[in-house]
Structure formats: C-alpha cells, structure tokens
Amino acid sequence: MYDDILLPFDGSDGAQAVLDHVAEIADTEDATVHVLFVADTTRDSITVIRGEPVDALVRHGQSLVADAERTLTSLDVDYETDVVQGNPASEITGYAERHGHDLIAMATHGRSGISRFLLGSVTEKVVRLSSTPVLTARMQPDEQLAFPYEDILVPTDGSPGAAPAVDHGLALASALDATVHALSVVDTASLGFDVRSAVSAEAGEGAATDAIDEVATRADSYGVGAVVQHLKHGSPVAEILDIVEEEDIGAVVMGTIGRRGTDRVLLGSVAEKTVRSAPVPVITVRRTD
After folding, report:
1. 3-class DSSP state of 284
2. Whole-model pTM over 0.85
3. 3-state class percentages of the chain: helix first, strand second, coil last, to nearest 5
4. Residue 9 has pLDDT above 90, yes or no
5. Which domains does the chain show, CATH number per domain?
6. Comparing C-alpha atoms, which of 113, 119, 47 is closest to residue 88?
C-alpha cells in the first residue's frame, strides 16, 4: 500500500508521536520513511559566518533529522533524510510530487518558537494543495496512535471529489484486513424549515444512500469483506466525530472536495475541521484531475 512515506519533521512532541506512528506503518508495509526538515526562508534567519551566509535553521534542522535517524535506526526502519530551504507548505507538497512519495504524514501542531514550521495553518495548506494523500494526527495528552487500523471510516457524498478517497480507504482496508465504515451525512444543519428545504433533504437522503451503497459495491473489487453503512442527518463534522467515538475508529479517510449545494458533505472546510478535531489519524485524498 505504501512504499515511500514523507515525514516533515520539526522535533516537536506531535511530530515525534507521528514519527513513531509512521515507523509502525513502515514496519508493517516494508516502506521507507523520508524525514524532511524545511528551513523556512520566508523568515529572517540568515546569519554570516566567516564571510559565508549560513542559515541557522538549516543547522538546527540537521540536528533534528539526526534525532529522527536514531529513532528509526533503533526501530529497524529504512529511512532517508533531507534538509531543504523554502516555503514549508509548497516545499513539502512539491518534494512529495518530485520524489513520487505515496503518503505525507504530519502533526497538526508543531513546535512554537524559532524552529516551528508545522503549525496548523501549514498542515492545512498541505492538505488543501497536496496531490499526495496526507495523513494528519492531532495529538493530545490522552490520545494514542494505534496501528494497524482495525476499523476505517470513509465519509462520502458520492461526488467525483470523494471517489479517490473511497478507493484509497478501500485499498488500505484491504491491505490491513480492516472493517470499512461507509458514512454519508445529509447536512440538515444547513437547511431551513420551508418546503424547498424538505425537498432538498429528501433528495439529499437519496444521494447519501446511493453513496454508501456504492462503497459497499466497490468493496468487493478490493477484497474487503466487512463494510458497515451509516446514513446520518446533521452536521457532517459532528457526525464524523460521533462515528469515530461510537465505532472505535482507527483512522478516517476522506476527500478534500465534495458535492456542491445544500447536500454537500466533503467541502474543504469539512475536511479541515475534521483534521483539526478528530482524535485519530485522518488521511485526506485530493482529486487531481
């Protein structure tokens, strides 16, 4: 499923937790972890030593990736490391594309202070821009990252924007022999109480039913035997989080762009809110055509 995983790394607690999680994934998938530090040259960090310009963040990044190397070596995981300069979000997405990586893994919050580059805004930019699937994890003191995932949630609205995420989620579930939970939400939070809203809700329920039926149908071609279908009404993000808790979900796989209109489920804002709030890893997949 995954051969090359890109791990942007800043040495923060969140990044360290994702490093350990990615090491588990790499060990299971026999993948290589590519540790990347981006020295943010959009900031004023250049100094001069012996007449030569030296970026203090580059040297700091080299120290941090060396720490990551020691961790991965101790876990017997194959790895490569690199330190580059530039704008963090564009460098991360461009690096993954240039090197053909099949997953980017990031914490949603990074280190504060001079070495930070994985603040939520950067992570969300990567989620929006990356043509490579992005695994994000929001670490809190009471949260753990468990792998392999036994239950994978795939929210869908049946739109073309959701299709790549459905395929990715089914492929991941097949590789891990996991149960897929197909979820479609009729967004009643955006509807009023007039006749037109009632008609929209009815149409939305039909589309939602078709969407989760399609996941169950496609599951056969991936060899996924266990699919649980969930049709919900309410706020998409709230319903996603409820299912995560109720079904002990290990990871969420979702698209970043979904259906337009009153029955939309997976607009970018929903994906970003899920990334910021879900207590489990979220893998976002963007349609690129």
Report:
1. strand
2. yes
3. 45, 25, 35
4. yes
5. 4-137 (3.40.50.620), 151-285 (3.40.50.620)
6. 119
